[in-house]
Automatic annotation (TrEMBL):
Cofactor(s) named in the record: [4Fe-4S] cluster
Aminoacyl-tRNA synthetase in keyword set: no
Organism: Paenibacillus lacisoli
Protein's job: 3'-5' exonuclease.
UniProt-recorded name of the protein: 3'-5' exonuclease DinG
Alphabetical UniProt keywords: ATP-binding, Exonuclease, Helicase, Hydrolase, Nuclease, Nucleotide-binding
Reactions mediated catalytically: ATP + H2O = ADP + phosphate + H(+)
Locus of motif DEAH box: 469-472
Domain Helicase ATP-binding: 253-517
C-alpha cells in the first residue's frame, strides 16, 4: 500500500479559483517518506493580497512557473495506485478533480483518507487540529506553513505518527473502531478493517497497560483500589511541626527543584494571613495582584491545616480553566515539595463525567442522531477511554455536534443505577467522588459549590473550611444558581430524548424491546407508551409557540454583538404582567398539564416494568427514562415559577440573540440580593472562609465586597480579616498610563463620526509605534464594529493585522492565539476579553481602554439592584455602578503586566477618569503605574520616548 499526501495552495477557496502551488509527499510500502514533489503553477492572473499574506507566494514567484497542463503531466503518474491523503482532504481533492478534468484526464478513483479524522480519533485531547498547531504540539519541524511542499511533508509526518499510535492501541479498541465504521461504506471503514486484521494476526502482548471490561479497554483500574495518602495507624506527619518549620522545609525543597526560585514578600504574607484565618476560625478577604503566586499562597496553608487537623479544606475556583491549571501545574509541583504524602482531588459538576453505562448502550445500539458526526465522536471516545484517568469532558476536543452527543452520555444523578450498575467500580463520577472523600484538599468550582447547597449538601464531602479563588465572581454565580436559568433547548432536548419520532428516542426504544419480549403485559405497556406520544408532541408545540411569543416581546439592545446571548433583553417586573401575557400563561398551562400527563403515566409504567420485567438493557432504559421524567418535571415547575412573576425579591428577565431568534431564548429568575443567602449558607455555618482575587478592593477599601457578599456582621464582630498585598511588580517602572485629556466624549454606546475617526487615527498611530502588540478593550460591540474598518484601512500599508471579536470568526481562545502568533497585531475585544486572557511577554505591549466599563444601566439585574438601593436611601451609582466598573477596570488593566519583565502602556480614552468626581476611584484603585495626561497630539511622541527609554 502506497500513500500520496497532497496539498495545494490556491488563489481562493471557490471551484473557479486556480492552483498556484502543489506539494506531494509519497509514502512507500515500508512507511517511509520516499520523495516530495513540488512545483509552482502560473495561474495567469494576479494573486489576491490576502493569499500572498497567508502563503508568502507572490506574482513574481509564479510568473515563470509551469502551466497547469505541464504540472499535471508530472503529477498524474505519481498518483497511480496510491491512497490519497490530505489535511482537510476534501478541499485539495476538489481542486485535483477540477484540474484532472480541465487537462483531459480521468477523475481520481482511488481511496481517500483525511488526517483530520485520524488526529481527532488518535489525539482526542489536542487543543487544536490546525496543521501548524498540531506540528508544534507533536514536535515536527514545519518551517513554511501554508506553502504546499512544507504542508504536504508536515501532513505526511502527522499521518505516520497517527499510524504508529493506532498500531499501539489494544486489539479490542481496534475491533470496536472497525465495528463502528463497518456499516459506513467509507474509506475510513476500509482502513480500520485492514488495521484490525493486521492486529489480529499479531501475538497478543498489550494486556498490561489497560483494564479490559465489557468489550472496552480502559486506562484505569477499579476506583475501590484507591487509598488515602496516609494510613489511619500512621502518625500525623505534622504532630510536632509548626507552620513556620513546615514552610521552611517547603522553601528549601523549592530552591532545590527550581534554582531560580526566590521568596516573594507578598506571597509570604499571604501564607501567614491564610494560615491565621484557618487557624483562628476567621473569614478573610485577601486581594493578591498578578505575580503574587496566589495559588500556592492558599494551597500550602490549606494542605498544612487539613493534614494537621485531619479536616478537609474545600477550594473553589470560578473557571474550569483555573481548576485544570491547579490539577496540571500546581498540585504536581506541591507533591514534590511538601515534605509528606497528601492527596488533592479535583471534583467537578456531575455532567462533566462520562457515564460508561450510557456510552456502552449508545454505541451498541448505534443510537446516533447525526450519524457522520456522532460516529466520529464515538470513535474519539473509544480511543480516549484508553488514555483518560478522569473521564472528564474538558479533556476532549469535540467537533460541532460533540456537545449534543456528550449530553446523552454524561453522568447524572437521576439515571444512575448506583451499586446495581455493572460499571459501578469503573465509574468516573464515583471515582471522582471517592477521591474527594479520601482527599485532604478538594478543588471544586463555584457552580458545584452552589449545586451542592441546592442539593442539601449531598454532593460534596463535608467541609468546615473553604477557600474561594476568583471571588469577585461569587455573587454572580450565586444569583444564577440560587435562582433559575432555563434555555429553549433545556426543554427541547429532554423531550426529544424521550421521543423524537416513532423510531428514535428512549420511549420508542423501550416500546420496541417490550414488544419483542413476548411478556404477558406487553400489549398493555406498549399501548400506554403510545398514549404518551400525543402529550409529548402537544408540550413541544406549546413550548415553540410560547417561545415565539416571548421572543416577540423583546426589544433589541444597541450595544450587543449579533451573536451575543444578551442581544435582546427584556425584564418582566414582579406582579406586573406585560401586554399579551395571558396568551403566554395559557400556553404555559397547556405545557404544565401535558407534561403532568407524561410524567404521571411514565412513572407508573416504569415502576411496573421494573417490577415485572427482568432484563439488563431494559433496566438501563427504564433508569434513563425515569431520569428524563424527573428532569421534565423540574422544567415544568420552573416554567410555572417564571410565568407567575409573583416574587418581589426576584428579578425576571429573558435574553435571546437575533441569529437564532426564539431558539436562543434564555429565561432568568434571580434573587435581587444574595448577600443574606451567602451569609446564612457560608459565613454563619463554616468555621473559616477565605476569599481571594486580584480585584476585591475599590479605593483600597473592601467595603463594597463586604456588603455584596453578606460579610458585614462578620466584620462588625471581629470575625473578618482583610489583607491587601502589594504587587511584586514595579508598576512605576513597568507601566505608563496615558490619558489624552482633550479627547471627545461619548453619550451612550455608539460613537459619533468625529469620535470614531479620532479614535481610529489615534489607535493606528499608536499601533505603528508599538509595532502592533496592542489589545483594545471596548464596552460595546457596536463601537468595536464602528472602529474596525477605519482602523484596518489606516493600518493596511503597515503590515499590522487587525483582529476583531465577532468580526473575525473564532472563539476568544482562537483569537488570542492568532494575536500571539503574528507579532504585529491589534486585537479589538469586548466583554469577555476584560479578564481571564493571559498574554505574557512581548506579545502585548499596549492596552487601550476605550470607555470605562460601566454595566448597561438597563440590564435587568443592575436595574433591580439600583431600585433596591434607592429604597434603602442609598445612591445606586456610587454604591453599585462605580464599584462594579472599578473592579472590571482593574481586571482590564491586569491584562498588561503578567510577569516581572513585562513593560507596557495603558491608554484610557475616557476623559471621565480625570474630569468627573468619581474618576479618582478608578485611578486610585490601580497598583501604582506612572500616570500622565496630555493633549492627544503629544501622546504618540511620549509613548515612543517611554518605550525607547527601557532601563
Amino acid at each position: 500500500m502506497k500513500f500520496a499526501v497532497l496539498d495545494f495552495e490556491t488563489t481562493g477557496t471557490q471551484s473557479a479559483d486556480d492552483i498556484i502551488q502543489v506539494g506531494l509527499a509519497l509514502i512507500d510500502h515500508d512507511f517511509s517518506i520516499s520523495s516530495v514533489y513540488s512545483s509552482y503553477v502560473n495561474p495567469h492572473k494576479p494573486i489576491p493580497e490576502f493569499i500572498t499574506g497567508l502563503t508568502g507566494i507572490t506574482d513574481e514567484d509564479v510568473q515563470d512557473a509551469p502551466e497547469l497542463d505541464d504540472m499535471m503531466m508530472e503529477l498524474v503518474p505519481l498518483l497511480d495506485d496510491v491512497v490519497l491523503v490530505g489535511h482537510n482532504v476534501a478541499f485539495d481533492f476538489n481542486f485535483l478533480q477540477n484540474a484532472l478534468d480541465r487537462c483531459g484526464y480521468l477523475p481520481f478513483s482511488g481511496r481517500i483518507l483525511d488526517t483530520m479524522d485520524f488526529l481527532k480519533i488518535v489525539f482526542p485531547s489536542l487543543g487544536s487540529y490546525a496543521l501548524g498547531n498540531v506540528t508544534a504540539e507533536l514536535g515536527f519541524g514545519h518551517d513554511r506553513p501554508h506553502q504546499a511542499d512544507s504542508d504536504a511533508l508536515a501532513t505526511a509526518e502527522v499521518f505516520l505518527k497517527c499510524l504508529d499510535e493506532l498500531k499501539e492501541l489494544p486489539l479490542i479498541t481496534l475491533q470496536r473502531l472497525s465495528d463502528l465504521f463497518a456499516e459506513e461504506d467509507s474509506d475510513l471503514g476500509w482502513f480500520f478493517d485492514g488495521l484490525r486484521e493486521e492486529k489480529e494476526r499479531e501475538p497478543i502482548h498489550d494486556l498490561d497497560g489497560h483494564t479490559f471490561y465489557r468489550q472496552l479497554a480502559l486506562k484505569v483500574e477499579d476506583w475501590t483500589e484507591l487509598a488515602p495518602a496516609r494510613g489511619e495507624e500512621d502518625e500525623n506527619p505534622l504532630a510536632d511541626l509548626s507552620f513556620g518549620q513546615y514552610m521552611e522545609q517547603v522553601h528549601d525543597n523549592l530552591r532545590d527543584m527550581l534554582p531560580q526560585y526566590e521568596e516573594r514578600e507578598a506571597q509570604n504574607r499571604m501564607f501567614d494571613s491564610v494560615m491565621q484565618a484557618l487557624d483562628e476560625d476567621k473569614h478573610l478577604l485577601i486581594e493578591a495582584g498578578t505575580g503574587t503566586g496566589k495559588s500556592l499562597g492558599y494551597l500550602l496553608p490549606s494542605i498544612y491545616s487539613s493534614v494537621k487537623n485531619g479536616q478537609k479544606v474545600m477550594i473553589s475556583t470560578h473557571t474550569i480553566n483555573l481548576q485544570e491549571q491547579l490539577r496540571e501545574r500546581d498540585i504536581p509541583l506541591l507533591t514534590k515539595v511538601v515534605p509528606f504524602a497528601f492527596r488533592a482531588a479535583v471534583f467537578k459538576g456531575r455532567g462533566h463525567y462520562l457515564c460508561l453505562r450510557k456510552f456502552e448502550l449508545k454505541i451498541n445500539r448505534r443510537d446516533f442522531v447525526t450519524p457522520k458526526e456522532d460516529l466520529m465522536t464515538a470513535a474519539q471516545m473509544i480511543v480516549w477511554l484508553t488514555q483518560t484517568e478522569h473521564g472528564d469532558d474538558e479533556e476532549l476536543n469535540f467537533g460541532s455536534r460533540g456537545g449534543d452527543f456528550w449530553e446523552t452520555v454524561a453522568s447524572d444523578s437521576d439515571s444512575c443505577l448506583g451499586r446495581a450498575c455493572p460499571w459501578f467500580k469503573k465509574c468516573f463520577y464515583h471515582r471522582a467522588r471517592h477521591e474527594a472523600g479520601i482527599a485532604d484538599v478538594v478543588i471544586t468550582n463555584h457552580s458545584k459549590l452552589f449545586t451542592d447547597v441546592k442539593a442539601s449538601h449531598q454532593l460534596l464531602p463535608a467541609y468546615e473550611q473553604l477557600v474561594i479563588d476568583e471571588a469577585h465572581h461569587l455573587e454572580d454565580v450565586a444569583g444564577k444558581h440560587l435562582g433559575l436559568h432555563m434555555k429553549y433547548f433545556t426543554f427541547v432536548h429532554g423531550l426529544t430524548r424521550l421521543f423524537k419520532d416513532s423510531k428514535n428516542g428512549q420511549l420508542p426504544s423501550l416500546r420496541q424491546q417490550i414488544q419483542g419480549s413476548g411478556h404477558e403485559k406487553a400489549v398493555e405497556w406498549t399501548s400506554t407508551i403510545d398514549d404518551m406520544y400525543p402529550s409529548v408532541i402537544d408540550a413541544k408545540e406549546a413550548w415553540d409557540q410560547m417561545s415565539e411569543l416571548m421572543f416577540g416581546l423583546l426589544p433589541e439592545r444597541s450595544d450587543a454583538s449579533p451573536g451575543e446571548a444578551g442581544q435582546f433583553v427584556m425584564r418582566f417586573k414582579a406582579k406586573n404582567h406585560p401586554k399579551g401575557w395571558d396568551k403566554l400563561a395559557a400556553l404555559e398551562n397547556q405545557i404544565y398539564v401535558s407534561l403532568g400527563e407524561v410524567v404521571r403515566k411514565g412513572d407508573r409504567l416504569i415502576s411496573e416494568v421494573k417490577e415485572d420485567y427482568d432484563d439488563y438493557s431494559a433496566e438501563s432504559l427504564t433508569t434513563d427514562i425515569s431520569g428524563l421524567l424527573k428532569d421534565l418535571n423540574t422544567v415544568r415547575e420552573n416554567l410555572r415559577f417564571f410565568t407567575r412573576l409573583d416574587d418581589e425579591n426576584t428579578v425576571y428577565w429573558v435574553e435571546a440573540n437575533g441569529q437564532y431568534r426564539s431558539k436562543s431564548l434564555q429565561l432568568y429568575a434571580v434573587p435581587v440580593d444574595v448577600s443574606k443567602q451567602l451569609k446564612e449558607t457560608f459565613f454563619d455555618k463554616k468555621k473559616s472562609v477565605v476569599l481571594t482575587s486580584a480585584t476585591l478592593s475599590v479605593d483600597k477599601s473592601f467595603q463594597y465586597m463586604i456588603e455584596q457578599l453578606g460579610l458585614q456582621e462578620a466584620a462588625d464582630t471581629g470575625r473578618l480579616m482583610t489583607t491587601q498585598l502589594p504587587s511584586p511588580f514595579n508598576y512605576r517602572e513597568q507601566a505608563l498610563l496615558v490619558i489624552p485629556r482633550d479627547f471627545p466624549s461619548v453619550k451612550g454606546s455608539v460613537g459619533d463620526a468625529n469620535f470614531v475617526s479620532m479614535l481610529a487615527e489615534s489607535l493606528a498611530e499608536t499601533a505603528i509605534v508599538t509595532q502592533g502588540r496592542m489589545l483594545v478593550l471596548f464596552t460595546s460591540y457596536r463601537m468595536l464594529r464602528q472602529v474596525y474598518e477605519p482602523l484596518k484601512a489606516a493600518l493596511e500599508n503597515s503590515d499590522i493585522q487587525v483582529l476583531g471579536q465577532g468580526v473575525d470568526g473564532g472563539s476568544r481562545t482562537k483569537l488570542t492565539r492568532r494575536f500571539q502568533e503574528k507579532r504585529a497585531s491589534v486585537l479589538l475585544g469586548t466583554s469577555s476579553f476584560w479578564e481571564g486572557v493571559d498574554i505574557p511577554g512581548e506579545a502585548l505591549s499596549c492596552l487601550a481602554i476605550v470607555r470605562l466599563p460601566f454595566q448597561p444601566p438597563n440590564h435587568p439585574l443592575v436595574e433591580a439592584k439600583s431600585e433596591l438601593l434607592q429604597q434603602q436611601k442609598k445612591n445606586p451609582f456610587m454604591k453599585l455602578s462605580v464599584p462594579q466598573a472599578v473592579i472590571r477596570f482593574k481586571q482590564g488593566f491586569g491584562r498588561l503586566v503578567r510577569t516581572g519583565r513585562d513593560r507596557g502602556i495603558v491608554i484610557v480614552y475616557d476623559t471621565r477618569v480625570i474630569e468627573s468626581y468619581y474618576g479618582k476611584h478608578f485611578l486610585y484603585s490601580l497598583p501604582g503605574p506612572k500616570m500622565e495626561h496630555m493633549p492627544t497630539g503629544q501622546m504618540v511622541p511620549r509613548i515612543e520616548e517611554w518605550l525607547h527609554n527601557k532601563q
